[in-house]
Request: fold
Amino acid sequence: MRDDNSSKDAKRTEDLIQRLINNDSDAVEQFFVEYEPAVSRYIVHTVPDITEEDLADVVQETFIGALRSLKDYRGDSSLTTWVLRIAHYKAVDALRRRQVMNKREEAIENMSSDEVSFVGTASADVEEDVVDEQDIALVRQALASLPPDQRQALTLRYVNGLRVDDVAATMNVSRRKAELLITKGRAALRERLIELDVRP
Amino acid sequence: MTFCQTPRSRWSSPQFTEHALAESARRALTLSAARQAMVLAALLAEAARLRAAQLRRMRRHAEVRRAIARLSPPALALSGLLVACLSACVAYLLVGGVRAPTDAYLNGRAVIGEMRRAPTGLTWSVARPPETWQDHALHHGDEVLAITPVTLTFANGWQATAMPGSRLRMLFDGNGLALLHGEVAAFIANSNGDADELRIETTAGSITAQGTRFRVRVESDLSVSAFADEGRVTVTNDAGAVANVSVGEQVRLRAGAPLKVELQVPRVTFRTYAKDRVISNSPHVPFSARILPRATLIVEEALSGRQFARYIADADGVVEGTLPAIEGSVVLRFSQAAPDGRASAPSQPVEIAIDRQAPMLAVTRALRDGNKVQVAGQTEIGAQVWVNDVRVTPGADGFFSFEGDALWDAASVVVTAIDAAGNATRIVQTLDR
Reply:
C-alpha cells in the first residue's frame, strides 16, 4: 500500500516536472503552492530575523532559479531536496548581501543583562513540556549561533523534516557526514540553549 | 537583580529540544496571502517569458529540420560534400596546404626556417633552433642559415656547400636555390645524357650549370660573383644578358652593369694565417695556388708594384712553391696571365710577416694536490699552450689555467707555448705539493 502511494507520488512529481519544463502556468502554480511552505521555513531558519518582505524576495529568487534551471534537473534527488538546495544558495546570498549574520553576532555579543533578564522573567513552567514564544526565540537564537553546516543540517532535519538521506543529498555530503553534523549540531544546540536560558 | 542558571534545564532533554525545533518550524514566519500572490505573479511572468523563448527556439529548429527534410538524400550528400570541399579550399587558401619536399638533404650545423606559401601568395617561416643536421630532408621554400660549412646533397649526387654565415633558400620550383648572402660552392657531376641543370638565383641574376664545378658569392656591395672551376656555367643578369663562363674565368653581376667575363683572381693558400695576415718563423714561406693550366702566377709588392716572383702552373693549373726569402714583413698581390695573353685583376693585398721570436710564457702556479694537478699562467696572445701532452686554450688575454688528473707520476710538468708563426717556448716546472 505504501509502495503504491510512493510510486503514485513519484509519477505525480515526474508529471509536474515535465509540465514545468514546458513552462505550463498551472504547473508553476501547483509547484509554488506545494513547495513554498518548506522553502519559507528553511529560509526563516537560515536567515535570522528575516522580514516578510525579504522572505518574499528570497522565496521568489528560489522559485525563479528553479524554473530557469529545471532543464539541468537530472532526477537523482527528490524535487524537495533539489528546491531546498537552491533555497540554501539563495539564503546564503541573502545573508551575504545584507550581512545579517554579522549584525546578528554583534547583537548577541552586545546583548545587555536587562535583555537577558527579559528572557528570564516571562519563563514558563520549567517542568512542563510546553514550548512558548520565548523558547522559540531562544531556539532560533541558538540555531543562528551554530556553525553554518550544523545549522543547515538541523534545519533540514527538524524544521523541514527531511530524512537523513535527503539531508545528505541536499547538502551534497555523505550520509555518515550528515548524521555526524546532525548529532554534533543537536549537542551544540542544547549547550547553547542551556547557556542562553538563564532563569531566576 | 541576580540570576542563576537552571541546574537541570529542560534543554538537557533531547526530546524537548527537538520538540522546540519542530514548534519553531510550525510557528515560523509565513508569507501572507497577498505576498504569496505577488510572488506567484512574478513566477508566472517568468514562466511566460521562458515559454516564449522556448517557442522561438522550437520554431527555429523546426524550420531547419523542414529545410533538411526537403532535401533528397543525393542532394543532402552533395550539400555535405560541397560544404566539406569549400571548407578545405578556404583552409588551403589561408593556411597554405602541404609543403612539397625537394630531393635535397642537408648536413651540417644550421638554422632552418621552414617556409610555407599559400596559393594566395602569403608566405611565412617557422624557424627551427640551431642544430647539427644529418641528412635532413629540405622542402621547397625552406631557408638555411649556415653556422658551419653546410652541404646540400641532391638525390642525383649533386652537392652544394654553403660557407659559414651564408643564407640560402630552396626554390619553390625545379632544382635550385636562391643565394641570399655568403658563398656557395657547387659540384655537379651529371652522368651521360643527363640534362638536369642546377640553378642558383641571386638578387643580381641567375647562374645555371650542368656537369661542372663552380662558386657563387654575394659580395659586400651586394654584387654577385660567379666562378667556374670546372666545365662551364651560364650567367644571366637581371637585364636578361647572358654570358658563358669557362673554367678559370669569373664574372661579376652588378645592377645596370654589362656582363664582363675575365680571368679569375688566383686563389693562393698559405699554411699559417694569424687574423688577417700570413705569419711564419721562416723567411721562406710555402704556398699553393690554383690558376689556369700553364698560366703564369705573378706575385708583386702591393705598395711599389715591383714584381716579387713568377711561377708557371702545371697542366692541372696547380702552383706549389716557396716565396723568396722575406725579412720583416711584406705586402703582396697575386694575379695570373693566361697563355693566350689575357690577364686577371690582382688579388686583395696579403701581408706576410716573419716572426722568429719565441712567445712569452710565464707559469704562475703549478700545484699537485693528491691526484689532481693545477697549472696556470700567461702567454702571448694568439699562442697555444700544452701542459705535457694536453692542449690548453688560453683566453683572449693570454691567460690560461689547467686542472686535471695527475696521470703521470712525476714531480714536474712541461708547459709549452707555440705562437702562430710556429715559434715555441718550453718550461719544465716543478709541482708544489
Chain B touches chain A through 41 residues (CB under 8 Å). Residues 273 and 279 of chain B are 6 Å apart (CA to CA).
